[in-house]
Amino acid sequence: MRKGLIIVGLCLLVILGFGAVQGLHVNEINALPHDGRIVKSKEIHGYGQVVLFEDNQDQSFGIAKLEKKFGFLHRYDGSSYGRTVEEGKPFEATGLGDLNHFVVGVVTTRESDIKYIAVGNHLKDVSSSQSYELSLEEVKANPDDYQLEEIDDQYALFVLDEYTEENWTIRAFDQDGNIVADKIFGGEVRYMNEERVD
Fold it and tell me: Rounded to the nearest 5 degrees, what angle is found at the Cα of 193, between the Cα atoms of 191 and 195?
């Protein structure tokens, strides 16, 4: 019995020692190359995790992919960071992807009335310069076309299967389900009451 424990302990030490050399960390936060705090974390099935983090130095935000090894170690595998909400804008978004996954992180302003973020699109003929009508109920009625997240401490995080124009179309809704802002693929983030000129 005692020999078995010693062997298991030695194996664990070898794995952790090898992991330290290979950039593996037990804690997610230690795997990040930034001094920050993790705000949200989601699993990417069969790969690892994605974390949305806030930088402690400049309060910007970013997302990072963390590959999971041996079921409990994390290795940094890329990020998009240094993002802040521009003055006069309702939110900021950043994305990160590869052939198998696309991740979207969104942050709102502190004083924002945005309650929900939807990623996706079923309105095929809307351009980034047009006004249009869309409600939260309509988004909920089209679950094959949208992913919906409630804002939690200013943030929302999405893990999607792939990068598409639809997955880079983002809409923000208030508590009553009214559309407040959007970012149509190829366009800028805007409040819905802004005037647009083609």
Answer: 100
For residues 42-51, one letter each, b for 16 or more C-beta atoms within 10 angstroms of the residue's C-beta and e for the rest, the string is eebeebbbbb
Q: Which residue has the tokens 């095929």?
A: 124
First to last CA, the chain: 76
Contact in structure between 26 and 73 (CB atoms under 8 Å): yes
Contact between 9 and 17 under an 8 Å Cβ cutoff? The reply is: no
Partners of residue 150 on adjacent β-strands: 116
Query: Is-contact 39 32, C-beta < 8 A?
Result: no
pTM of the model: 0.80
Residue with tokens 């930088």: 55
Element (H, E) at 137: helix 136-140
Question: Which residues have C-beta within 8 Å of that of residue 181, sequence separation ≥ 6?
Answer: 90, 91, 114, 171, 172, 189, 190, 191, 192
Question: What whole-number distance in Å separates Cα of residue 58 and Cα of residue 82?
Answer: 8
- Walk along the chain (198 residues) and give the pLDDT tens digit of each residue: 666 666 665 555 555 554 444 456 566 656 667 778 888 988 877 677 888 888 888 888 888 887 877 777 877 776 787 888 999 999 999 998 877 789 999 999 988 999 999 999 988 878 777 888 999 999 999 999 999 999 999 999 999 988 888 889 999 999 999 999 999 998 899 998 754 443
Contact predicate 26/68, CB 8 Å: no
